[in-house]
Design a protein that fits this description.
With 216 residues, the protein is an all-alpha fold. Helices cover 81% and strands 0% of the residues. The chain contains ten helices and no strands. Helix 8 (154-179) runs antiparallel to helix 9 (183-204). The longest helix is centred in the middle third of the chain and has 29 residues, at 88-116. It is globular, with a radius of gyration of 20 Å.
């Protein structure tokens, strides 16, 4: 990411104002992609007989994750900026956005997880709610409270669904570079987000939607 940032700075223009923030906004997805790549390489080396020892095991991963989760929580709290709260005109809009966003996200994630993952809906809900109100790491922290050994598929779903988040989320973050240019661009971005959300809903509930059509 550091080398990519250097290259984007050299290009200048939209690469610096839009693409670079997008890259760093997806830093946890970049980490996830490298973790999956590393795991696949290690699996291939074991299958080829080059690597004989099992270096990846739950005990080691739990010890490592426990340490870095503590560091992550400490760093995330330390990185919180309260500059916006120095301006009184921002207090009410920020409070309303935070409360409304938390409630709507809670309701939406609860409905989706109960439909898509009925066998482990609670675990899936915590991972999705943590991710949608923070990052993938936040979702993992909440999951560890009720599934400390990651016995349900919720943790695997969280990791692999991030790859699809890049495909669906990248256009949304790219639009942030245009939304503040004018009122017209604001409404264009607003409408585009509704279209993207509709596509996501169709993908999520495709079995239910197309099942009804087949019955008819």
């Amino acid at each position: 990411m550091w080398y990519a940032t250097k290259g984007l700075n050299a290009l200048g223009g939209v690469w610096v104002n839009t693409v670079k923030p997008l890259l760093w906004g997806f830093n946890f997805l970049v980490g996830t992609a490298f973790a999956i790549l590393f795991k696949n390489i290690l699996t291939a080396l074991r299958s080829a007989g080059i690597v004989h020892r099992d270096y990846i095991n739950n005990f080691m991963l739990n010890r490592i994750s426990g340490l870095f989760f503590d560091l992550m929580v400490t760093a995330s709290i330390a990185a919180i900026s309260l500059e916006a709260f120095k301006h009184k005109e921002f207090l009410l809009p920020l409070a309303l956005i935070c409360v409304a966003g938390a409630l709507v996200t809670y309701w939406y994630d609860l409905k989706v997880c109960r439909f898509l993952f009925p066998d482990y809906s609670d675990e899936s809900f915590l991972t999705m709610y943590g991710q949608n109100t923070g990052t993938a790491s936040t979702g993992i922290i909440l999951l560890r409270e009720i599934d400390p050994l990651f016995e349900t598929p919720a943790s695997h779903n969280l990791i692999y669904q991030n790859l699809w988040s890049i495909v669906l989320g990248a256009p949304m973050l790219l639009l942030l570079g245009f939304v503040a240019r004018s009122i017209t661009w604001t409404w264009v971005v607003y409408g585009t987000l509704y279209v993207l959300f509709g596509i996501i809903l169709v993908v999520q509930y495709r079995s239910k939607i197309f099942k009804k059509r087949k019955k008819k």
